[in-house]
TrEMBL record:
Name of protein: Uncharacterized protein
Domain of life: Eukaryota
Lineage summary: Eukaryota, Viridiplantae, Streptophyta, Embryophyta, Tracheophyta
PANTHER family: ISOFLAVONE 7-O-GLUCOSYLTRANSFERASE 1-LIKE, UDP-GLYCOSYLTRANSFERASE 72B1
Length: 91
C-alpha cells in the first residue's frame, strides 16, 4: 500500500499505517503539497521490488492471518462481540 493523504484525517492515517503498523510506504509531497508522477513511479517500484516492499507485504499478510484468526469461531473478536451482546441482553 502507498500512503497518499489528500484531506481530513488521512494524514493521521498515513502516520498510523506507515510508522506504527508499517504496512505502507509514504508518498513524498513537494513543498506545494503535490506528488509528482516520478514520485509515484519511484514508490510503486520500491513497493514491488525492494526489501522494504517485501517487509510491507509480509507484515500485511501476517495481519491478515491474525484478523482471520480473531474473527473465526472461538477467536478473540467473536468472543468479545458475544460478551458485548450478552451485556446488552442483561439490561
Amino acid at each position: 500500500m502507498l500512503a497518499w493523504p489528500l484531506y481530513a484525517e488521512q494524514r493521521l492515517n498515513r502516520v498510523l499505517i506507515v510508522e506504527e503498523m508499517k504496512i505502507a510506504l509514504p508518498m513524498v509531497e513537494s513543498e506545494t503539497g503535490f506528488v509528482s508522477s516520478t514520485e509515484v513511479e519511484k514508490r510503486v517500484k520500491e513497493l514491488m521490488g525492494s526489501k522494504e516492499g517485501d517487509s510491507v507485504r509480509e507484515r500485511t499478510l501476517a495481519m491478515k492471518h491474525a484478523a482471520k484468526v480473531a474473527t473465526s469461531e472461538g477467536g478473540s473478536t467473536r468472543i468479545a462481540l458475544a460478551k458485548l451482546v450478552e451485556s446488552w441482553k442483561q439490561k
